[in-house]
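Hello,

Our lab assistant flagged a job as stuck in the queue for most of the afternoon. It eventually completed. Since we weren't sure the result was trustworthy after the delay, we are filing this so someone can double-check. Below is the sequence as submitted and the structure that was eventually returned. Let us know if re-running is recommended.
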Amino acid sequence: MGKTGKKRGASFVLEQVILFMFGIVIFTVCFFVFSSYQSYFTELSIKTQIEEVKDVILYNIVKLSEKDINTTSSIRINFCEQPGTGCLPRRIGGEEYMISLSQKGLNITTVSGASASSNLYNLNETMNMSGSVLSSYGSFLIYKRGNEIILK
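-- returned structure --
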């Protein structure tokens, strides 16, 4: 084996090292692309879930507001791990969240700060709104008494 044999061996090793480096580069690029898509879709999912929770609560508030002013009514809503009919998720994006009702409107906020709000279709101009609950409570009442709607 002469110099040409050593050159062939060195070039083979160099080719393998370069090929391995290309594999590492391709893996790294794919990892970062998929990570960015995962965070985008996670954020989109959290926003969608918050909006859906807001819509369910808003629907029930409007439903109660239509009741006669002289009656006292309430609707119990449960939180559960596996949401289904009449049940809200205990966590959104893996986080607990707060539901608050005030004269300013309905607001849903997660621990990390994602939120959704509604002006209650201007019901707050004719009714007094108040109360807040955490999703960790297990359940809560939307309570109507006279011209008041209260979360508790």
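-- support follow-up --
The delay was a queue issue, not a problem with the job. The result is valid. DSSP finds one helix and eight strands in the chain. Residues 3-151 form one domain.
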